[in-house]
Amino acid sequence: MNKSYNYFFTLILLICFINDVIGQKTFQPKSTDFDWKGIVYREETAFEGRIHTNGMLIGLNFGDIKTYYKTTYYHISLGYLRDPREKSQNKNISLEFPKRSGDFIFGKQNNVINIRAGIGTKKYLSEKAKRKGIAVGYDYTFGPTIALLKPYYLELIYNIDASQERELRTEKYSEENQDKFTTYSSIFGGTNYFRGFNEISIVPGLHGKAGVLLSLGAYDEYVKAFEMGIMADIFIKKLPIMVETDEVSNKPYFINFYINILLGKRKN
User: 182 to each of 71, 152, 165, 245, how far by Cα in Å?
Assistant: First the structure.
């Protein structure tokens, strides 16, 4: 009887041991994945500095992170736009005047400052990227733009009556001084850039861009990205950047290649 009891007790212990081993194997926690797939943030703010074929801009993007790989954002920026025919020069003369001539752009009529606003989307081509890896994607933006036209001033040389004496007059382009403004020998030089800000006029339009996006640590706390692509500005009329002649005409659209650097931060 005691022998049978010992066998029965041993069998119970053996069953409990096997059940414990199986249980440990079944409920053993999975090993921690240190692949660092990324942390989900809800918002993203990034400053951008963009250089394009005919100008540059600085901007700010406010993003709403939808998923690991998709973000929609609002964009606002301030920049300048130039005509590809512009060429800065200096005649390096003083003549009888008590100062040296300043740099100027021959034939320029207006400076253009652009204010852009819009909505954009960026998508990464892979749903998740390893921490500190480079995620590749694409980015596009579109929205309204406003061109601020600031008159361009020159110092022009005028003869005083019939005498040999001459004087300098600071003037912007007009129909009355067209011949003087577009005659190289009548130009002394350029003036202070800030002259004419109280005479700004507005031309509305639309803008858009599309580019390839390279993001370092795309799901880290800090935004570090590089972008390159093509952008366009289209206005309701020609922008009078240059004085129009038989050989020179202005246009209502500008298509440029650009490179962009974005730096910012993400948060929940």
Answer: 50, 13, 22, 10
